[in-house]
Structures are given as structure tokens and as C-alpha cells.
Design a protein that fits this description.
This protein has 344 residues and is an alpha+beta fold. The protein is 44% helix and 20% strand. A 4-stranded antiparallel sheet has the order 1-10-3-8. It has a 4-stranded antiparallel sheet with strand order 2-9-5-6, with no helix packed on it. Strands 4-7 form a two-stranded antiparallel sheet. Helix 3 packs antiparallel against helix 4, helix 4 (210-225) runs antiparallel to helix 6 and helix 6 runs antiparallel to helix 7 (276-307). 22% of the residues are buried.
């Protein structure tokens, strides 16, 4: 039966047993891994795809139609922005505006009669106002129809000259990249886990050092972090798999904290004693406090993001949330222009 020192020397579980060449090699591998991650982040495709249509007060109505959609588009956020001719006047009021959405042949109203908008002084463009949020793309075609209701040159809203409606969704290419990135690293993790188990297969479990077990559990938690069920977020409607993804991520972060607490304490301790009550239990209790809070917060945040991807806390959550998603706006300040697609 191999002695503990022989096991350590064979598997190089402790950094002080590595030679200078092996330490440099480990540093190079770590640097290469960081480079690969940064490279994939740099070549990531554009995230959002935009559809838009414009409507003047003199027009009857306009329709924004999106086709060839799928669950890979993840969500759809539709917002409207009004334009005024006088930049010296700021208003916050209800604007007559009617809008409907057609989904699967069924037509339903989004907001009727009016929408409340804010138009700041010094700009011809008003703030974005959210009309509709679809947290899950259920159909291949969405059509939004809008008209300016009773707005006329003689109405109290005569300052409004036109409106732009825009829908934002996630590009299929970005979803494919996201899936490939996640499952690619999942495959690498499984390979590393298999190699680690192959190294330890000749050693009985009772002879494993504590560090061996910690690293094995770390690799298993890395598999959990990469979430083998991640693709179900795009195929199943609802919050369940969103919660599962948040649970897996927080569990991995909690174990990483526990792992380093164990490693640092074992290095600093002059005597290698690993009783559960004195060595493991205090660290586990500390990490559990972090884990419970992290699971509660991240799960709430992810579920809220699923149902309200543009909402932010505050009285102006619609306007601010829409502006966050529409921040790549290319509309000129004084005149609305045609966006990526205009269907009228």
C-alpha cells in the first residue's frame, strides 16, 4: 500500500512538491486557459436583434411584424418612443395610443386609450415606454399594430409629431454561441474529472488524502456550475430551470469558498487533523450562511429578470428599463429614422 508521502509525490497534490519546471508549466496552462476564455469572449456575436417601425400623427396606423422567431430568441421586449417638435418644452402626460399584438392568429390589446410618457426639455425624443414583455417566445410570428388614437393638431398632445415602436430580441447566433460555450466547457470539465479519477483509480478510497476528495468534489461542482440542463432554459417555458441554473451557480460559488477555507487552514495548521467538529463544521456553517443568502437573492433576481427583463427598481422602471435595453439607439434627436426593419 503506498504511503501518504508517496501518494503526494505521485499526484503532485501540494504545490510545494512541484519542481520549478512543473510550476512554470502549471502557470503557462493557467495563462492559456485565461487567454482562451478572453478570446471566446472577444469573438462573441452581437447579442440583440432589433425590429422597428415609425408612425406620424397624420398616418392611420402601422404594423411591426417579426417572423422566423423561435425559443432561441429567448424573449421579446417591445417599447415605444414619441417625438415632439418643440425641444424647449418638457411634458409628462398620457398620450392617446392604441396597440395590439397578434400571436398565433390571436389578436389581443397591449395598452389601450393612452400611455404615460415623459419628454425631457432639450430633446426632441421622449423616454422609451415599455408596451409588452414576452419572457418566452411561444410563436414564430409576432405582429404589433399601433395608432395614435385621438391625437390631432387641436388636441392637448399637439406637441407630439410621431412615434417609433421597437422590439428587441436575442439573436439566434448568440444563443447558439452561448450554448456552445457552456457545453464546451462542460465537456472539458468532464474530461478533467475522468483524468483525475484515472490517476486515483489505483488508490483505495480509504487511502485518499483529504485534498484528493476536495479536488474531486470541486470538479464535480464545476460540472454542476456548467449546468447540463442549461438548454432547457430555451425549450421550456417557466421559471423552474431559471431557478435551477441560479441554484447550480450559487452552489458552485459556495463550494469554492469552502474549498479555499479548507486548503488554507490545512496549510496553516502544523498538525494535519481533520475532525469534522473542529475542522469542517465551522467552515460549513459559515459557507451555508453565504449559500442561503446567495440562492435567495440570485433566484429572485433571475426569476424577476425572466418575467420582466427590462424592469429596474423605482417609479420610472418602464422608462429606465427600456432605455437600458434600447441604449444602442441610433435615432436622431430631432427626427425618427427607419430601423432595421420597417413594416407598415
Amino acid at each position: 500500500m503506498p504511503a501518504e508521502g508517496a501518494i503526494e509525490s505521485t499526484l503532485k497534490i501540494r504545490l510545494e512538491l512541484l519542481t520549478q519546471t512543473e510550476q512554470r508549466r502549471a502557470l503557462y496552462l493557467f495563462g492559456a486557459a485565461i487567454f482562451v476564455v478572453l478570446f471566446f469572449a472577444a469573438v462573441a456575436p452581437e447579442t440583440f436583434q432589433e425590429y422597428g417601425a415609425s408612425l406620424a400623427v397624420s398616418d392611420n396606423s402601422t404594423t411591426l411584424r417579426m417572423t422566423s422567431l423561435s425559443a432561441r430568441n429567448q424573449f421579446i421586449v417591445t417599447a415605444v418612443r414619441f417625438f415632439k417638435y418643440d425641444t424647449t418644452i418638457g411634458i409628462t402626460q398620457d398620450i392617446p395610443f392604441n396597440s395590439t399584438v397578434t400571436l398565433g392568429g390571436q389578436v389581443g390589446p397591449l395598452k389601450s386609450s393612452s400611455v404615460r410618457v415623459t419628454c425631457p426639455i432639450g430633446s426632441a425624443a421622449c423616454d422609451w415606454t415599455v408596451l409588452d414583455v414576452q419572457p418566452f417566445v411561444k410563436d414564430g410570428t409576432y405582429a404589433y399594430k399601433m395608432d395614435l388614437g385621438n391625437t390631432s393638431p387641436t388636441s392637448s398632445c399637439s406637441i407630439i409629431t410621431s412615434a417609433t415602436i421597437r422590439s428587441v430580441t436575442v439573436r439566434n447566433e448568440f444563443t447558439d454561441y452561448e450554448l456552445g460555450f457552456r457545453y464546451g466547457f462542460l465537456s472539458v470539465t468532464i474530461i478533467l474529472l475522468a483524468l483525475w479519477l484515472k490517476q486515483l483509480r489505483v488508490i483505495p478510497w480509504r487511502r485518499w488524502m483529504p485534498e484528493h476528495k476536495w479536488v474531486l468534489l470541486l470538479l464535480c461542482m464545476l460540472v454542476v456550475f456548467n449546468n447540463p440542463f442549461f438548454a432547457l432554459n430555451f425549450t421550456e417555458d417557466g421559471w423552474l430551470f431559471v431557478f435551477v441554473d441560479a441554484l447550480f451557480q450559487t452552489s458552485f460559488m459556495a463550494y469554492v469558498l469552502l474549498f479555499w477555507l479548507l486548503i488554507l487552514d490545512s496549510v496553516a495548521s502544523p498538525v494535519r487533523r481533520f475532525e469534522f467538529g473542529s475542522f469542517y463544521l465551522p467552515k460549513i456553517l459559515l459557507v451555508m450562511v453565504f449559500w442561503f443568502n446567495a440562492v435567495a437573492f440570485l433566484s429572485w433576481e433571475r426569476v424577476q429578470e425572466f418575467y420582466h427583463p427590462v424592469d429596474v427598481p423605482g417609479d420610472k422602471q418602464n422608462e429606465e428599463g427600456a432605455s437600458m435595453l434600447m441604449q444602442k439607439d441610433r435615432v436622431k434627436e430631432n427626427t425618427p429614422t427607419t430601423l432595421d426593419r420597417v413594416m407598415s
